[in-house]
Amino acid sequence: MYIKVAEAIREMGGGDQGHQKYIGARQRPSGRWVAEIKDSLQKVRLWLRTFDSAEEAARAYDHAARTLRRMLGQTLNCLIHLVVILTIFHRFLLRKCAKQKSLKTLLVPLNASCSIAKALVF
Questions:
Q1: Phi and psi angles of residue 111, each rounded to the nearest 5 degrees, phi first
Q2: What's one Pfam family here (predicted)?
Q3: Which residues pair with residue 27 across a beta bridge?
Q4: How far, in Å, are 27, 49, 67, 96, 113 from residue 60 at the CA level?
Q5: Other beta carbons less than 10 A from residue 58's beta carbon
Q6: Do 51 and 57 meet the contact criterion of CB atoms below 8 Å apart?
Q7: Does residue 96 contact residue 115 with C-beta atoms inside 8 Å?
Q8: pLDDT tens digit sequence for 56-115
Q9: How far is the C-alpha of 63 from the C-alpha of 55, rounded, in Å?
Q10: Is the model's pLDDT at 116 over the cut of 90?
Q11: What percent of the chain has pLDDT over 90?
Q12: pLDDT mean across residues, the chain
């Protein structure tokens, strides 16, 4: 037995009566609807546009959400690839330093005494 959240809120006496609530759309005192989305990377709320209906504002929010997620996905994928490359490179440095020096250099992989680490310090 599942109850819709909006129906449960109305039954408890809360929420806006008669209006369906859309994520990313809010009604202004003038009666028009505003579409906004929160950009989690920059921690800001982005104003998209003002609309005459809640449905239009919700559609604008959905489009912006898909666009932001696609951009975020590309950014995260790029970062994941970078982390993988750096991890492989770090393991390579550990092996090279271990061959050149003792176990102490292995525990401190970017030790200044390791010639490979010196060459790669930017």
A1: -65, 140
A2: AP2
A3: 33
A4: 14, 8, 11, 54, 58
A5: 19
A6: yes
A7: no
A8: 998 888 888 888 777 766 655 566 666 777 777 777 777 777 666 654 544 444 444 444
A9: 12
A10: no
A11: 10
A12: 69
* Residue bearing tokens 């090279």: 96
- Measure the CA–CA gap between 69 and 20, rounded to whole angstroms: 25
CB distance 45 to 36 below 8 Å = yes
Residue type, 55: E
**What domains are defined for the chain?**
5-120 (3.30.730.10)
Show the DSSP H helices in the chain as ranges: 5-11, 54-100, 103-107, 115-120
CA distance 45 to 21: 19
